[in-house]
Amino acid sequence: MHKTLTALIALSLASMSTTATADTPALEAQAVRALENDTHAWHFVEGLTTEVGPRQAGTEAEARARAWSMAWLKDKGFANVADEPFTMDTWVPGDIARARVTAPFAQDLVVLPLGNSAATPAGGFEAEVVFFRTVDDLRAAPEGSLKGKIAYISHQMRPAQDGSHYGFAGPVRWVGPGIAASKGAIGAVIKSVGTDHHRNPHTGGTSFPAGVTPIPAGALSLPDAENLERMFERAGGKPVMLKLEMNPRQIGATRSGNVVGEIVGRNPSLPPVLLACHIDSWWNAPGAFDDGAGCAIISAAALHVKQAGQPLRTIRVLLAGAEETGLWGSRAYSDAHIDEAIAVGIESDFGADRIWRFESNFRESNPALHKRIAAAVARFGVSNGNDAATGGADLNIVRDQKGALIDLQQDGLRYFDLHHTPDDTLDKIDPVQLRQNVAVWTMVVGILANEASSILTGGPIPSAPAIMQD
Amino acid sequence: MHKTLTALIALSLASMSTTATADTPALEAQAVRALENDTHAWHFVEGLTTEVGPRQAGTEAEARARAWSMAWLKDKGFANVADEPFTMDTWVPGDIARARVTAPFAQDLVVLPLGNSAATPAGGFEAEVVFFRTVDDLRAAPEGSLKGKIAYISHQMRPAQDGSHYGFAGPVRWVGPGIAASKGAIGAVIKSVGTDHHRNPHTGGTSFPAGVTPIPAGALSLPDAENLERMFERAGGKPVMLKLEMNPRQIGATRSGNVVGEIVGRNPSLPPVLLACHIDSWWNAPGAFDDGAGCAIISAAALHVKQAGQPLRTIRVLLAGAEETGLWGSRAYSDAHIDEAIAVGIESDFGADRIWRFESNFRESNPALHKRIAAAVARFGVSNGNDAATGGADLNIVRDQKGALIDLQQDGLRYFDLHHTPDDTLDKIDPVQLRQNVAVWTMVVGILANEASSILTGGPIPSAPAIMQD
């Protein structure tokens, strides 16, 4: 029996090894086909943005997006397609968002509320604006100094290929209104955290510290923010007065959900490869770049890997709900599945422009696999980076499991022109670049899904069945 | 006495001739200074867009723009600055503009009313949309076939350096809603007449034929129009239903006005050189490109010509009112001044990008002057075109007088990305290109304002005083 088992293992490993090497050319050929003529990804994002459009977390529109995505996945042959429900605290933007400078000049400004913003009284309020060039300037303002005033907070974000200026400017939105409120401000407006010059503000979530009552908080479009700053220069010290009216509100707990689907592997008891994106968007855009494209890319790649031959491991797609308003879906997925090991997690949530750099968090622990992936994606113009992958927002489960992560970094030079604005529409997606994403993902996911050993360490896989443990 | 007069004339002409030739290098030097460091034009357009902003024709905002412009012109040393009033029929956009596809998919579309649009009933109406790819397709629809429906009219405008695709696509807006109304439509929406892909519709005037009752008529942003077209493709023949709500209205006769100012010439009895622009904008943008920049360019050029030495002829700037809603100011100016000869008219109303081509309507009647101007602007990258200048919208008086016209054609590749949209903001102006405009205008206006003979024919000027008629 022992000999038989050993022989079986040997046979199995040999066959796997053969499959793995034999599969590489098939996989590469499929990735090249994806590069040249993938239609799945465009079909997904075109359909989602046309038939559903904006899909704010926790609303009926997000529920329609889940239903639409599930129908699409089933139609394309995904197995175990499901909507895994969770509840969340839901904020909605309302339908009034007005800002008007009333003195020393009179002019409307284009504003949108930030997620978690409070409402103004009906009819709005008018108050003097205090101008802060940076969040640090706001932090330095004396306690109580903003009593009865509206804080305006600026920044100098620039396009960066790696998206790093989001970290540079993001605090203006993330914490600016909360700091202003804690110093007595009755409202806050920020220069949109973005890099374009269209009259479409960048919304996004903000938060208020414990014990600080939320205030109305909005984003001005960049042209409007710059105009407001010029008004300060021309005001000659006279107070700049702003009238602000918005009616967003918290509507309490509502249902959201994570959509999952699988390409079942030859050995479904092996930990799966998890591909993540998010299905929700802000209310103000059809969410083509953020993140319809991501869901399109991961789903298309899974289909191409399957087309090259049934993979060893199961590939699971996670179209997370309610990412934008606080990673509700990511946390719910981790809570529900923390005891089910994930082999490796990868996420697409940075638009649809070309992937230019590959990172993993197993460069040192599993150098052979890291190098093999780097070599495989080089032909698509993807370099081997120097940093450790940290994974996207919807990969909480992998971080919670301290598992393997890969980042396939997309070119971010255009991303913050569109991020969280009404301009995030289908026409912004370049089909050629979208297909490059699908091709790179096909290569990477195909290699990972056919890898018998542990992704993170290259060693045996604790949770794998006995037959795998040589 | 006669001998004395003849001597005086000879002296005067000699001095003029000397001045004219001596002035060319001075003028050229001044134009180069303008190219390198003009500040007048930026100061004008920055101030107008910051301190006034949107200035819809016939409203208090347009009145503030006139007051602001007059103060600026006086401050810079223009003489005879005046606000010449006229009355006009005024349309205002209201504050509600909503469009939502309700079936077979549900999604909001971004819409703005067109000038002269009627209002919907409060709460809006819902109707089936009929899709026309072109105005000609709409024209071919049977009479009465649109009864109770909303017409959607598309086009395929592309950027064109000479702006000629405005003529290609413009009829969609100019006459589309009127044709739809005449065939029974209760509403019309058009693909914005523009070339960008931002969620900011291009408004602009439309008109309804005599006897046809105006209907609600709006422009969808180009991403929204394309989305609507994709919905038709995905609807599988099911009716596409649109809910439309808008509340624009006609408010009857209001006061507008033309702002004028002069650099007085050495011989103010000679017909002046008329430089035109318009001071009004649509309500939805600060009108930086359209046409704050134009008023900035002509005013700055007049100041630079003066700086090079008092010109022979008076230079008059005309900052026309109410151009956008029907050339009210242009017609009022011609009506008021038709008996006062204009030497030549030039207009700037096509943004602030580089001038690339020069045209006149005296190429054949006054070839020497035409060639002299063409040679003078060549150093600024301006070619000698092949067509006859027709003049801008605010030069009605020159056309009515059958006078001399010059077109200094600006690069229009970006113009219809911005035209009549909220995106027409100061940041769209490239200061380097703006200064090139001022430099070219300085050369051209300087030559014309120092030209003793008739601009149109090169012959003597009938309305000039005796001393000029050699």
From TrEMBL, chains A, B:
Protein's name according to its UniProt entry: Carboxypeptidase Q
Gene3D superfamilies, A to Z: 3.50.30.30, Zn peptidases
Keywords, alphabetical: Carboxypeptidase, Endoplasmic reticulum, Glycoprotein, Golgi apparatus, Hydrolase, Lysosome, Metal-binding, Metalloprotease, Protease, Secreted, Signal, Zinc, Zymogen
Residue ranges crossing the lipid bilayer per the database entry: none
Species of origin: Erythrobacter dokdonensis DSW-74
GO terms for biological process, alphabetical: proteolysis
Record-linked Pfam families: Peptidase_M28 (PF04389)
Molecular function as annotated in GO: carboxypeptidase activity; metal ion binding; metallodipeptidase activity
Assembly description: Homodimer. The monomeric form is inactive while the homodimer is active.
Principal location: endoplasmic reticulum
Range of residues in the leader sequence: 1-22
Subcellular location(s) per record: Endoplasmic reticulum; Golgi apparatus; Lysosome; Secreted
InterPro entries the record matches: CPQ, Peptidase_M28
Domain Peptidase M28, chain residue ranges per copy: 258-443
Cellular component terms (Gene Ontology): extracellular region; lysosome
